[in-house]
Design brief:
The protein is 35% helix and 20% strand. It is an alpha/beta fold. It has a 6-stranded mixed β-sheet with strand order 3-2-4-1-5-6, sandwiched between helices. Helix 6 crosses helix 7.
């Protein structure tokens, strides 16, 4: 039996590492920065009607509200959807950047392993970290399990930029890097669930440019 679902994938707000353009992954459990908090509050004001609609649907149990276990995602949800306890989804953490964790491209300029990873288009396994393929498999196992078990017609997931790229590209809605977005932005996607298959139908960008 086929059924359709609307899923909102929201990237967390800005952290200190994001401002440095560092690789903030699974091992960096950073909190939001002051800039990140301010930007999310701006989104809450400028997109009040849409966020309020989602808030009400969560309260009515017509929309399931989930977050990655990482602080930056939980704190983002607390700003956008205050006083609502989300479902935490272990396995939806950002990619493990291994020896690149917490560093930006300038700090990795003389790192041979980093250059090799860049030359591979980001697909090569990172030393002491994950490959893109392993990251996508982990992310999709969690995502697919969550949507299959959801009886509501909508779902909100506050997660990471990498998680969003992994999900949308796996649903064959586009190429992995084409779904890069800023902090506080996201996508509304329509999916079709059929037994052991989940198909992407369409997507729409959310909150673009409002985080700056």
């Amino acid at each position: 039996m086929k059924r359709q679902m609307t899923v909102y994938l929201l990237r967390h707000g800005k952290t200190p590492g994001n401002s440095r353009r560092a690789y903030v992954g699974r091992a960096s459990d950073e909190s939001l920065s002051e800039d990140g908090i301010r930007e999310l509050k701006r989104i809450r004001v400028e997109k009040r009607s849409e966020i309020l609609r989602l808030y009400e649907r969560i309260l009515e149990k017509r929309c399931k509200y989930c977050v990655s276990p990482m602080k930056r995602c939980i704190e983002t949800g607390e700003i956008l959807f205050p006083k609502i306890t989300p479902v935490v989804l272990p396995g939806l953490e950002e990619m493990d950047f291994g020896i690149f964790e917490g560093k930006n491209y300038k700090e990795l300029d003389n790192c041979g392993e980093y250059q090799s990873w860049i030359d591979s288009g980001g697909s090569e396994k990172i030393p002491k970290g994950e490959s893109r393929e392993d990251f996508i498999v982990r992310t999709m196992e969690t995502f697919c399990g969550a949507v299959r078990s959801c009886s509501a017609g909508e779902m909100i997931i506050v997660c990471h930029g990498g998680s969003i790229m992994a999900i949308l590209s796996s649903l064959r809605l586009g190429e992995y890097f084409s779904f890069q977005i800023g902090n506080g932005e996201g996508y509304r996607i329509e999916i079709e669930i059929e037994e052991d298959k989940i198909h992407g139908i369409s997507y729409e960008r959310l909150f673009a440019g409002l985080h700056t």
